[in-house]
Amino acid sequence: MTSVKINRYTQPHQFEPLLPQRRLDEFRQRTRAVVERSLRLSGSAHPATVASLRELVREMNSYYSNRIEGQSTHPLNIERALRQDFSDKPDVAKLQRLALAHIEAERELEQDVASGESASTTAFLRQAHAALYGRLSIDDRTTDEGRIIEPGAWREEQVAVGRHEPPLWSSLPAFLARLDAVYGPDTSLDDALIHIAAAHHRTAWVHPFLDGNGRAVRLQTHCALWHLSAGLWSMNRGLARNHDKYYQLLDAADSHRQGDLDGRGNLSEKLLGDWCDWFISVAEDQVSFMSKMLKLDEMKARIAALIAFRSQFDKGVREEAIIPLYHLFLAGPTPRGEFQQMTGLGERTARSLLSRLIETGLVTSTSHTAPVQLAFPLDALQFLLPELYPEAATAV
């Protein structure tokens, strides 16, 4: 990014249209299917199990959003950062702190949305930027060019981003007001993905912050999708795994109108529609994938495969754990005595088995006497949720 003198985009009409006008029936039908599958997904496991999955998805969101920016750290390093275990290597520790800030910011912002705040406003976008960068020290939010990223501060100078020239900084209030007018009001569930997709591009196009726009926009997108996804599927995963296509279509949607048949705005309606089409397809893919991951019969088989594998190398793990672990997935927190009874083992052996499951992170509990519940440690994901987060299984 370089500072240049630009006097081009100064009026909001210059980034119209803000919504595609063609293929709306198709987009709405597909959105409806995503909504329906998402709602079924939320009810596919006990709320406590869903909460554990949501924590895993937050880690994934952090990893993939930072990977898009070329600044990711290994999933195991993220897990260590959550335990306040930071690397002795300064560069690795800095990336750990960035990942942790993203997770904490996302959790805070999700709570705001759950409390009724709209994630579709520029005020929320500013809040997302502040929530992320406000958690970082000055050193950790200083760019390679020596610029300090000020949390939640709108841009006050002119920039060029690749071949794109964002609006004149002094015109930002008018552009931000137009974003709020179009994307801020509540919309129907059928139109939700269309609005969120278009807002993702047009907000990035405005480039309201000096730096950190991509991360802030993806945080806003995640939260705008919250009422659909419940935090159980990740757009960041889909965007990162199609990184080149993501940037290619974002760039294409910056283009000017391509003739008389390409809408009536200054920018291309067709290419905005192509972006929305692809964005919806990513949502379809992610909710479909997670729905498959949480199928009850398949989860039982995966738990059995995990226990069979671990029991070969760990004498403390036994196949009698399969049924009670599956019970935890379905029923959520369970008293320790009840879990041990479901193993069918003697009291001492059952207690030893449960202790080993807790030691290895597959089962968690808030205290030595509290109920136990299923967890999703990274070293179990290749069995429990295969291909969800494959990077977690690689060596650091």
The parts where pLDDT drops under 50 for at least 5 residues are 1-7
Report the principal-axis shape. Answer: globular
Task: Please name the fourth-level CATH homologous superfamily of the largest domain.
Answer: Fido-like domain
Q: Strand order within the widest sheet? A: 1-2
Describe this structure in words.
With 396 residues, the chain is mostly helical. The protein contains 17 helices and 4 strands. The strands form 2 sheets. A two-stranded antiparallel ribbon has the order 1-2. A hairpin with a 6-residue loop joins β3 (363-365) and β4 (372-374). The longest helix is centred in the first third of the chain and has 25 residues, at 90-114. The protein starts with a strand and ends in a 12-residue tail after the last helix. The relative contact order is 0.14. The model is unreliable at 1-7 (pLDDT under 50).
Primary descriptors:
single chain, 396 residues, mainly alpha, Fic-like fold, Arc Repressor Mutant, subunit A, two-stranded antiparallel sheet, two-stranded antiparallel ribbon, 57% helix, globular, disordered N terminus
